[in-house]
Amino acid sequence: MEKRLLSGNEAIARGAFEAGVTVGTGYPGTPSTEILENLTTYEGVYTEWSVNEKVALEVGIGAALAGARTLVTMKHVGLNVAADPLFTSSYIGVKGGLVIANADDPNMHSSQNEQDNRHYAYAAKVPMLEPADSEEARQFTKLAFEMSEAYDTPVILRSTTRISHAKGVVLLENPDRSRKASGFERNIKKYVMIPGHARLRHIEVEKRMERLGKDVNASPVNVIEMNDPAVGIITSGICYTYVKEALPEASVLKLGIVNPLPEELIRRFFSSCKKVCIVEELDPYLELRVKAMGFKVEGKSLFSSVGELDPDAIRKAFGVKTTPALPSSVQLPPRPPSLCPGCPHRTVFKILNQMGLIVTGDIGCYTLGVMPPFSAMDTCVEMGGSIGLLQGIEVAMDGSGSKSAAGVKMTAVGVIGDSTFAHSGISGLINAAYNGRKSLFIVLDNGTTAMTGMQPNPFSGERINGQEAFSLDYEKLGEACGIKNGNVRIVDAYKPKDVEESIRALLDSGSLALLVIKGPCVIYKRKKMKNKDKKPV
Amino acid sequence: MNEKNYNILIVGVGGQGIILASDILTAAALFSGLDAKKSEIHGMSQRGGSVFSHIRFGKKIHSPVISRGEADILLSLEQMETLRWINYAGEKTLVVCTTTRIKPPNVEEYPGDIDGELKKCRPFIIDTDKTAEAIGNKKFVNVALLGFVSARIGFNDDSWKKAIQENVPSGSFDDNWNAFLYGKKSFKEVHQ
Ligand SMILES: Cc1ncc(C[n+]2csc(CCOP(=O)(O)OP(=O)(O)O)c2C)c(N)n1
């Protein structure tokens, strides 16, 4: 078997290809992005960047119901967007296997929060697998497809930044590329979730989880590694590798499946060890469930719920000596990320800073407009948030509820990137028109989804594999959403006078407006050249 | 190569070729028949941020990250960055750093007390300009540095060659391989 060095993300794509996946959808988001970027390089797999995670999962559910093995990818917060279809797809099940590869980001290397998505698997009643390195990422992806079909359920494959972006040795197996989508077959009671049908399906879901709860005790990916019985550690994912490093003598129960939990196996582990501790990053997810089974166990009393763990954190918690490190006594200036030299986003933030406006911001490279010398952003919550928050600020400041206050000069504007606008800004724009707002929304269109490494989006005229595509027309869109009086303007990011004049004019107009500032991302072209040499593994 | 796992931390600033160097090193370990892992955080490399890559190889590697104090080699492409990550080095660590200094954005001047602090960890200082001149292009200094530490690591030339071949565009293989050999030679000269 051929050995290759692959990142966790590359290995998930490889595993999906080996499993016979023919459909892959997703929305970019660090650290998950490279999964679909790799999957698209394989022959015989349809892939798309969907407009957002909800749509990605819906397309995935449809493909799975039509019998295709389907992979859907997104980062942790993406699953918030896709949560609605997730919870009910759990009821309707699958025909072809459906796996959601979902990457958490403990320590927020590139995210706005560090939510622990293991809770989603429990809440949506779907199995969740958690690999500990690249080779397991490949194997578990294949296993996830088998489980999905065997138990008629979507399956979540959970990764974290340290799995997705670490490279390790992977064994390549022969792909099974003989699968064909068997086609959609009508099954109204299973697929149409009116209450009468859903009540019956919920019973099936509970039965499925009960059956799974028994079967996982014998799963080859839930393993007890007996060693010194004095201390037993229950762990999963990347933390397993840290435990092996820090406590090589300890007995370990390594969970490859974190939902549902193997209660029998856990019981056996407790009866073989004097004392058991749980090592997990973020929330006390395993700890609470193991405690609910009636066991006495330590977990978050030893570790923080904030940030990542590492071998040293585990050594310290268990009183194991760490290696003395060379001291560093100088204060070093940080190297914070900043907008690239020549970045088109620079213009507008300089102007917004000078104008002293309130700016509701959004998520993307342009969030760096919050940093000095620009200091021109006042809020950033989630993708699309700039559009809604601005409306709330206006409503509250007008003091006139949903009625518009004619003649009141707006002092706040919203800024949003092109990809983010397509993702979840447009519905907010419709809301503004519908409810009579006079907001000014500024779209910073750099022709790509830059923050996550230059993926095309519905405004860039290109698809995931470089194919030409339709590009959404701002003027027609603005008009259709209810913007009047030619209040949609498109200006060049490198003409600061035009940008400033447009902001003033549109604010003065006293009615709803959309300003699109266009200028291509400066590293976009360089990246495009590089991608040309990319080959599948 | 003995039984112990080997840890190398490569650090510097976005654009210096740290990720490429770590890809080559990890591949060379694999081609030498070892288990290998590497870990880094993507994202800052194009935006001038501080970049690091952990590389570990040996019989069986669990954690992809190095523990503090346990780097066998700290290879730094930028002076100040050496100190930012110095807590991964211990008494026995070989510290190699270049003369390159890159001023962080938003500060007036490069911090003045770097030299004195650096001396405390007894580094091998590699003159970036001289190296670039000798190998003909600043772009390949990262690979020259790999050549330098290769003498300490001890994989055979075939593994390195194959690793470089796999990771650089075919047109630049010869330049990279020459840079590697130059680095390897200069290590021998320092250690005579
Ligand atoms: C729900 C959700 N999905 C994905 C992400 C990851 N993400 C952060 S910013 C961004 C898009 C940025 O693109 P754009 O709006 O075009 O701005 P640019 O970075 O190009 O300036 C994405 C996909 C996220 N934070 N939240």
Describe the structure.
- The complex is a heterodimer of chains A (537) and B (192).
- Chain A is α/β, with parallel strands linked by helices and 537 residues long.
- Chain A has helices at residues 8-18, 34-39, 53-65, 76-81, 83-92, 118-124, 134-151, 161-164, 188-191, 195-215, 238-246, 263-272, 285-292, 311-317, 345-355, 385-398, 418-434, 474-481, 496-508, 524-531, and strands spanning 3-7, 23-26, 46-49, 70-75, 98-104, 128-129, 155-160, 166-171, 222-225, 228-236, 250-255, 257-259, 275-279, 358-360, 412-417, 440-445, 488-492, 513-518.
- The longest helix of chain A is centred in the middle third of the chain and has 21 residues, at 195-215.
- Chain B is built from seven helices and six strands, in the order βαβββαβαβαααα.
- With 192 residues, chain B is an alpha/beta fold.
- The two termini of chain B are 21 Å apart.
- The radius of gyration of chain B is 16 Å and the shape is globular.
- At the A-B interface, strand 8, helix 11 and helix 14 of A face helix 1, strand 2, helix 2, strand 5 and helix 3 of B.
- The complex binds thiamine diphosphate.
- Thiamine diphosphate (TPP) binds at residues 27-29, 53, 75, 77-78, 81, 363-366, 383, 417-420, 446, 448-452 of chain A.
